[in-house]
Amino acid sequence: MLLLTTALTAGALALSACGSRDDDKGGDNGNKGGRKTTVVIGLDAPLTGDLSALGQGIKNSAHLAVTNANKSNDVPGVTFELSALDDQAQPTSGQQNATKLAGDKKVVGIVGPLNSSVAQSMQQVAQSNTVALISPANTTPDLTQGKDWKQDRRKRQFSTYFRTATTDEIQGAFGGKYAHDQIKAKTAYVIDDQKTYGVGLAAAFSTQFTALGGKIAGTEHVNPEDRDFKAIVSKAKSSGADLVFYGGEYPAAAPLSQQLKESGVNAPLMGGDGMYSADYIKLNKKSAGDYATSVGKPVEELDSAKKFIADYKAAGYKDRYEAYGGSTYDATWAIIQAVKAVVADNGGKLPDGARAKVVEALDKVKFDGVTGTVSFDKYGDTTNTMITAYQVEGNTWKARHSAEFKR
Is 271 within 8 Å of 245 (Cβ atoms)? Predict the structure, then answer.
């Protein structure tokens, strides 16, 4: 498994920005003689493979948060280090990475993963090792509220799990309402990729769309590795639907959209945050007019994100921060602020049993982040339920409508 540390960035990064594990040899948790305690924040994301555009944006944004915390000496006596592992969007790899990171006693928290299905494989590992796992991108409600959330029997599943992205209960419902009210679609053909994220998003979309009077003209399932959609395109075309909705991610969504358009389907394709990537447009010559929803507001429209955007550009990362840059920075900063609270409560030193104390501190964390106010509810979900609808115009995604959407 590929191991990436903070040294892996677009530009040359000095050890002074990353910290050194030699800083605290001898077990000194204080800052005697100018020596600092090294605290490691783990990261799990798809750094290679089809979803690497999103994964690299996540890694870079987490690295930026760690770098800024060290530059500003945000936690006196502590130097932060990032240890990033590649899960290639595979649950088995995510579980292995969680085990490896949890086995490092210096790791006090893990940022990630991208995929909800990967999170399902990591949650128990994090819980068993009392290490915080905070995702900037997971949206499946089950991860925090349990499988009975649809019946409003919600119960927190893991006390160590948090996320800075809102759930598909909210995102899917927003998409269904936007499709009905703004796109004016009366019928939708709904496709999902059979993965945890795609199935949940499509179901939430369908529930809201039909509740508003829309009609589901047909449903279909694909494999996320599929790239030839002739049979499904034929069915979608025959349905005469005003809109095709895809619950899944951009590597499959892009060829699906292109093949729909090439077959003469005039209906736009709509999806969620898994489709909202610049690579969707790069992979799809017929992407113009398609829609996607994504969590939060565009960081480019937020005053709170101006410094993040400027710092990211100045750092010289070769990859874009993509859809989850702001939420990743906030997730990483939440762990940093939790460590800060724990150190302050222990007289300026990192205490024994720091992991458990960091988890407790995360429940109480609240700060003004890149994406707005960052805090968590009783399930570990973000309290920020802002969602944005985007449409492809030319060769870029354009924000069309943002709103808070409460369950």
Answer: yes
In the predicted structure, residue 33 carries a pLDDT above the cut 70: no
Q: ∠391-392-393 over CA atoms, to 5°?
A: 110
What is the separation of C-alpha 313 from the centre of its chain, rounded to a whole number of angstroms?
A: 20
With CA atoms as reference, report the closest residue to 130 among 352, 339, 354, 377: 354
Give the count of beta carbons closer than 10 Å to the beta carbon of residue 396. Answer: 9
Between CA 307 and CA 310 the distance in angstroms is 5
Question: Could you tell me which residues come within 8 angstroms of residue 303 by beta carbon, excluding any fewer than 6 positions away?
Answer: none
**pLDDT at residue 23 greater than cutoff 90:** no
Look at the pTM and tell me if it is higher than 0.70: yes
User: Rounded distance, CA 353 to CA 345, Å?
Assistant: 13
* Residue spans of alpha helices (H) in 37-131: 52-71, 91-102, 116-128
DSSP state of 298: -
Average pLDDT, the chain: 91
Task: Copy the structure tokens of residue 183.
Answer: 């796109």
